Amino acid sequence: MNEREIYTRLNQVFQEVFDDPAIRVTPHTTADDIDDWDSLEHITLISAVEREFRMKFKMGEISSMRNVGEMAQIIAQRART
Questions:
Q1: Which pTM was predicted?
Q2: Which residues make Cβ contacts (< 8 Å) with residue 79, sequence separation at least 6?
Q3: Would the pLDDT of 62 be above 90?
C-alpha cells in the first residue's frame, strides 16, 4: 500500500466520521484543523481508521500521534509487515 492510497482512504474515513465531504487531510493535519475533532470524536475516528485498514493501534501509538502524517506512517509500517 502506497502513501497515496493511504491518504485517499484516510480522507474517506475523515469525511465520513466528521460528516464533511470537503475535508482533505495532509501529513500536517491535526485536531486543531478540524472543527468537530474533540476527544470523543477522536475515539470514533481511531476506531473507524482501524476498521478501514483492518489493524489495531497500540495505546502508546494513539497517545503519541501528533498529526495525520504520524498516523499514516504507522499504517504504512503495518502494511509492510
A1: 0.94
A2: 1, 6, 53
A3: yes
